From TrEMBL:
EC number: 2.7.1.148
Organism, as annotated: Ruthenibacterium intestinale
Gene: ispE
Protein name as catalogued: 4-diphosphocytidyl-2-C-methyl-D-erythritol kinase
Domain GHMP kinase C-terminal, first and last residues per copy: 198-272
Family as reported in the entry's similarity comment: Belongs to the GHMP kinase family. IspE subfamily.
SUPFAM superfamilies: GHMP Kinase, C-terminal domain, Ribosomal protein S5 domain 2-like
Domain named GHMP kinase N-terminal: residues: 65-143
Length: 296
């Protein structure tokens, strides 16, 4: 094959706790994470060069981009003397805490593995991905998982109970390094009980899961929109409302799609970028090849 197209989903943090500092200086975490049906679409074509295009996006297409970093890490790990032409069509908001950049990196790793027939396993791809970013291994695995350490310890969980997420991205975004720096300065009293949250997942109990949903970074994000968005979500019937990752996106959990859509309509009076999403069971994956001669 000369090209592949990969879909890579965004993620939400159902919980996020900070448990310490690793020897390398990174914060250690304990989180429940979930992929959702908002996708980055990444096309990779064989090329003697390494090139990245992001049509319609303001994200810089340079050596600091996670897609380029992932490609370089892949070629370094495999020893392949090759290149790739990468086109990323972004849908996940930037600086939202939804792993858009990590999804791009995951898509590149999964796509290159297929494009060049490298035969790398998922754990091997995750090991490469961790060098690019802490959320990349989960973006490869996807589904519902408990993620610990610096993002390197992934435990697949039973599927999230049937629900819908109303997700809202306020104007502006949050810098992840700055959020963690403020956490180090300010601390928090918020520490979700991930063992109880895991038990709720295992029992398929959405109400019990929502009771444990919280984010240790929410206060240190200092996003002025967190409170107002969460208030609208709760007033609209959300079982839980919280920030995802280091922000700035906030989401609410709903039992039915109709209520979730009503919450979205209410949010869009003030915050145009809102979505109703649902859990999906996998991470970055190659789309089936289109049969020859078939029109789009």
């Amino acid at each position: 094959m000369d090209s592949v197209t990969v879909l890579a989903p965004a993620k939400l943090n159902l919980t996020l706790d900070i448990t310490g500092i690793a020897p390398n200086g990174y914060h250690t975490l304990d989180m429940l994470m979930q992929t959702v049906n908002l996708y980055e679409r990444v096309t990779l074509r064989k090329s003697p060069y390494l090139r990245l295009r992001l049509p319609g996006s303001n994200v810089p297409a340079n050596e600091h981009n996670t897609a380029i970093k992932a490609a370089l890490a892949f070629f370094d790990a495999t020893g392949l003397l090759a290149g790739v032409d990468i086109t990323v069509r972004k849908a996940v908001p930037v600086r939202a805490g939804m792993a858009g950049g990590s999804a791009d990196a995951a898509a590149v790793l999964v796509g290159l593995n297929a494009l060049y027939g490298a035969g790398m396993t998922v754990p091997e791809l995750c090991e490469i991905g961790l060098k690019v970013g802490a959320d990349v291994p989960f973006s490869i695995l996807g589904g519902t998982a408990r993620v610990q350490g610096i993002g390197d310890v992934l435990t697949p969980m039973p599927s999230c109970p049937r629900c819908w997420f109303t997700v809202c991205m306020p104007k502006g975004g949050i810098s992840t390094p700055q959020a963690y720096a403020r956490y180090d300065e300010l601390g928090t009293d918020v520490h979700p009980d991930n063992d109880l949250a895991q038990r709720a997942l295992e029992q398929g109990d959405l109400k019990a899961l929502c009771a444990q949903m919280s984010n240790a970074l929410e206060f240190s994000s200092q996003s002025p929109a967190n409170g107002p968005i969460e208030e609208i979500l709760r007033r609209s019937g959300a079982l839980a409302a919280l920030m995802t990752g280091s922000g700035a996106a906030v989401f609410g959990v709903f039992r039915d799609e109709k209520t979730a859509q009503s919450a979205k309509a209410e949010l869009q009076k003030h915050y145009p970028r809102s979505w109703v999403l649902h859990p999906v069971p996998r991470g970055a994956h190659v789309l089936p090849a289109r049969p020859a001669g078939k029109k789009k």
